[in-house]
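Residues and backbone
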Amino acid sequence: MSLLYFVELKRKVLSELPDKTITALNNEMNDEQKENLFVFCGVCRKEISAEIEEKGINNSQIKILALLMRLRQICCHPGLFLQKL
């Protein structure tokens, strides 16, 4: 099967899909989440700075992504973060 076939198939399927719906929910973090976030944010800054200085920005992307995911876990639920320590 050629790439052209898949592009054509994608166009056909896209026309059949409903419109995209985006829902934004804003929630306040509790005190435990805020404290964990601010502490880990400081740790992340130091780690990212050291990583970039050592390996350069292009070779540090995985480390940066991993730290961003950890920050996201704290924001979603501190239990996800604390379980992995």
Notes: Residues 31-55 form the longest helix (25 residues). The mean pLDDT is 83. The chain has four helices and no strands. The two ends are 47 Å apart (CA to CA).
